[in-house]
Design goal:
The chain is of the alpha+beta class. It is 33% helix and 9% strand. The strands form two sheets. A two-stranded antiparallel sheet has the order 1-2. A two-stranded antiparallel sheet has the order 3-4. Bound molecules: zinc ion.
């Protein structure tokens, strides 16, 4: 059986990484053997996929069971590990909508929220929150849940000024996730909360509709 050509795999996958479904430049692509060669996997096309080089080196010759576990552990929000040597991409224009979260740490921060479980949201009398926009990352959604729970607890002592609200959110995220939120992500978080109608900011004054 001949080794499937990387170009052919990329073509079949529509130019996307098999795992994270992000556009995959050929220079960053590599062939992943689902069943590792060390474990008897063949070079056949049915055993090979093109994926981000960083993920390929992480998967290495792990067993297929471990690989499936790694995929399942991402809960459908699969992102290949970021390349450590990668030069950070230029900051996105705030007007450009993007599904990508602004990078803020070389290792990414998805999963770090698991260390600090969010308190359960109040159920009694809680208004249902409009569905999250599909462009908001899991990490951002977790942050919004944290912020919402905290604001709801505060009742009438919620920050009334935008500046106070942003510093409150920064402190809360830092405290609860052990990781600061970048200015860009803070801005996106506020945008998303406004989009959901949870708060309105007018001339620096905040009104809530939690
Ligand atoms: Zn990938």
């Amino acid at each position: 059986m001949s080794t499937p050509h990387l170009d052919r795999l990329l073509f079949v996958q529509g130019g996307l990484c098999f795992f994270c479904k992000q556009p995959l430049p050929r220079a960053e692509a590599s062939i992943e053997h689902l069943v590792a060669s060390a474990n008897g996997g063949t070079n056949g096309e049915d055993n090979c996929v093109a994926c981000c080089r960083t993920l390929n080196s992480l998967l290495g010759s792990k067993s297929i069971k471990e690989k499936i576990q790694i995929v399942l552990n991402q809960h459908g929000d699969f992102r290949c590990p970021k390349n450590r040597e990668q030069v950070p991409a230029p900051a996105l224009s705030p007007l450009a909508p993007s599904a990508e979260e602004t990078p803020e740490a070389p290792d990414g921060d998805s999963g770090s929220l698991l260390k600090a479980p969010a308190p359960p949201l109040p159920v009694e009398g809680a208004r249902s929150v409009p569905t999250a926009s599909p462009t908001v990352s899991k990490t951002q959604q977790d942050r919004i849940a944290l912020v919402l729970a905290d604001l709801r607890k505060r009742g009438n002592s919620r920050p009334r000024k935008e500046a106070t609200l942003t510093s409150t959110i920064q402190a809360l995220i830092k405290q609860r996730t052990n990781q600061p939120i970048s200015d860009a992500n803070l801005k996106k978080l506020l945008q998303e909360m406004r989009r959901r109608g949870l708060l309105t900011i007018l001339d620096g004054n905040v009104t809530y509709n939690l």
